[in-house]
């Protein structure tokens, strides 16, 4: 038997699998942490990608808006923000001319404690911080429509700032292709109507993991983000241990694409064949904080699985569902019914539930989590309290066919069939 510890929430789960059953452990190439993170961040400001350095962009007396990811995204903001803000100070921008807006999208607003957790105590004391509220029409400005018809409403305070710097982290995303870059704007600081219209493009089959150039949803995001006229971006890439491994700063498109290519070189894993069983851990921490984040691991894992195969998902999801809306769609009971409802009235939670049902109706999925068992069952997924229970079920279903992949960090690993 081969024993492998997999991250689960803030702890680990030990999985034990017959060595002969394992085709491979899919984890990509390990990204080594940067030896001098602050120096690398500093260098990124001096030699940005496709953009002049910040020293030629910002001017004394200007108001600077910093867009920072919400609590569901690990970015190392507490590490890069002090370097960024100190650099702005050196360029003649005092703390009182800088403000942070958290790119909540449609996610819940933060408590002051959550805000401080994201940026660190030092920055929380120094810089004014605000949550973006996508439904606060009084703080939205109408910028027109994209070529795909998305009505573009953005955070008014950010739009009116003299300079706009976007920050975030780049990971795979199951319909935007990749996180980071333009996502700080849409959905990050966009109005609810804008987010809904853009995310409706997720129903297009080209809107999928690792796709950018022909991904209509991502291209729509880029177009909307350009309408805000951001001046600079700073995106990070973290490994499975949330260590800083890459910094990509500069132009909205060029710097983001460079970061995406970097991820592909490490996290895209080519497999010769698909497996009967995939054992996938989201990766722990923020990567399995709730249903939405855990689903991303499920999405990546299914690319390595045969039709009719079994998946064991280890994703704690202690925060449950972001809202009760998700359960409304779950109660519809089938992917077909959810799809019909989304065609009538598209919503983002509905699409995530639809994507879950789509996989649950195609594969046998067992989920080890803290989600209520009756809700998991309603998604046509089998709940389990432990890996041992889940593995016994999978062996019963599969019989003698158990060619297995193990994915220790499915949230950040993308299997591609050769």
Please render the helix and strand layout as text.
Layout: E1 2-8, E2 11-17, E3 22-25, H1 37-46, E4 64-69, H2 77-90, E5 98-103, H3 112-119, H4 121-126, E6 128-131, E7 140-145, E8 151-155, H5 156-160, E9 163-169, E10 172-173, E11 177-178, H6 192-199, H7 216-228, E12 232-238, E13 244-250, H8 254-267, E14 268-271, E15 275-281, H9 291-302, E16 305-314, H10 325-330, H11 335-344, H12 348-360, E17 364-368, H13 373-378, E18 382-384, H14 387-398, E19 404-407, E20 414-417
Parallel strand pairs: 3-19, 4-5, 4-9, 5-6, 9-12, 14-20, 15-16, 15-19, 16-17, 17-18
Antiparallel strand pairs: 1-2, 7-8, 10-11, 12-13
Structure in words:
The chain is globular and about 70 Å long. The model has no long low-confidence stretch (mean pLDDT 95). The chain has two domains: 2-29 and 269-417, LarA, C-terminal domain (2-enoyl-CoA Hydratase, Chain A, domain 1, Alpha-Beta Complex); 37-238, Rossmann fold, CATH 3.40.50. The protein has helices at 37-46, 77-90, 112-119, 121-126, 156-160, 192-199, 216-228, 254-267, 291-302, 325-330, 335-344, 348-360, 373-378, 387-398, and strands spanning 2-8, 11-17, 22-25, 64-69, 98-103, 128-131, 140-145, 151-155, 163-169, 172-173, 177-178, 232-238, 244-250, 268-271, 275-281, 305-314, 364-368, 382-384, 404-407, 414-417. It has 418 residues and is an alpha/beta fold. Helix 1 (37-46) packs across helix 2 and helix 11 runs antiparallel to helix 12. It starts with a strand and ends with a strand. The chain has a six-stranded parallel sheet with strand order 3-19-15-16-17-18, with helices on both faces. Helix 9 (291-302) links the parallel strand 15 and strand 16.
